[in-house]
Specification:
globular; 317 residues; five-stranded antiparallel sheet; single chain; Phosphorylase Kinase, domain 1; 9 strands; Aminoglycoside 3'-phosphotransferase, Chain: A, domain 2; 9 helices
Length: 317
């Protein structure tokens, strides 16, 4: 596993927590990593003699498939979003230094609700799509998010920034390079679209980051990859993942989530071919990183993502 993927020492965290106001008598009953995810390490910490029965511990990785990580920036994003109509967990505390857990970390409110993949009848696809659209409609300027997140000079510059970030990981994860990945990098850079507008993007609208209760989204978690950019990149991730999970391949603009998002937001999307290809390229790079860090394949195969990437690149002009 990537370095620092093991939950930290409960005793060390308990000692640190007892130095925080209002938690002087807190005792750690259990500390365990939450399954899934490849961003900052998230643990549930059950407490006794504390104002809250549980908190979320968000510990920064030093290496991983979405490097570089910046957990303190994520905390600032959550603070800025608190006045918005987007439910996010509250930031209780932060530790900027490497000690006592070996890395910076956040302590967040624990939202006791299952994610969409486990919520069963409590989950609602329409509510999920509407929340994604609401995130993209957020007034990032008024919320002060440009004080926390880099502000691209244009929508095209935002797309190029994303390409450059993946290219940097490609150089780290694929020593010596790879012909298809190099081809994708060049084509995506050359054809980066400039017809979008700058919006708040969560960066990972996977269903596992949307917590449900009673058919409503009660929290959106994992803002590590949040950025100001073209919101079609968020949608492209869902489209690419759907193909890897077996959804039929067809015109990018006609994919079910793209259509549902257009109806929920009142803004039909077009030009999705570039964003689907971008995310398939990123997922191909991630595959190399996953194998390098874990020694095993992720849930999809390299041949599967390469085949889809090759088809998607043929549609990028």
């Amino acid at each position: 596993m990537p370095p620092r993927s093991v939950p930290p020492d409960p005793a060390a965290f308990e000692q640190w927590l007892q130095a925080q106001p209002g938690f002087e008598a807190a005792r750690v009953r259990s500390l365990r990593a939450v399954d899934g995810g490849a961003s900052n390490i998230t643990c549930r910490v059950d407490l006794a003699s504390a104002a809250t029965p549980a908190v979320a511990l968000r510990l920064q990785r030093d290496r991983g498939i979405f490097e570089p990580y910046a957990v303190l920036r994520e905390g600032e994003v959550l603070r800025k979003l608190k006045p918005a109509a987007i439910p996010v967990p509250a930031v209780l505390f932060e530790e900027p230094g490497p000690s006592p857990l070996g890395a910076p970390f956040l302590v967040l409110e624990w939202v006791d609700a299952p994610h969409m993949g486990e919520a069963g009848a409590d989950a609602d696809f329409g509510a999920y799509v509407a929340m994604v659209a609401a995130i993209h409609e957020a007034d990032w300027g008024g919320l002060g998010l440009a004080e926390v997140l880099p502000l691209p000079g244009s929508p095209r510059a935002a797309c190029l920034d994303e390409v450059d970030a993946v290219a940097a990981r490609m150089a780290a994860f694929v020593p010596g390079g790879d012909p298809l990945l190099r081809q994708a990098h060049a084509r995506l850079r050359e054809a980066a679209p400039g017809d979008g507008d700058l919006r708040l993007c969560q960066g990972d609208i996977n269903v596992f980051n949307y917590l449900f209760r009673g058919g409503q989204v009660v929290a959106v978690v994992d803002w590590e990859q949040a950025r100001i950019g073209d919101c079609r990149s968020d949608i492209g991730q869902l489209v690419a993942l759907a193909h890897l999970k077996g959804a039929p391949y067809g015109p990018a603009d006609a994919q079910p989530f793209v259509q549902a998002y257009g109806m929920a937001s009142g803004r039909p999307l077009s030009g999705m071919a570039w964003f689907r290809a971008f995310w398939l390229w990123q997922l191909a790079v991630i595959h190399h990183g996953w194998v390098a860090f874990n020694g095993t394949e992720p849930w999809y195969t390299r041949s599967q993502v390469y085949e889809l990437l090759d088809a998607a690149l043929a549609e990028v002009s």
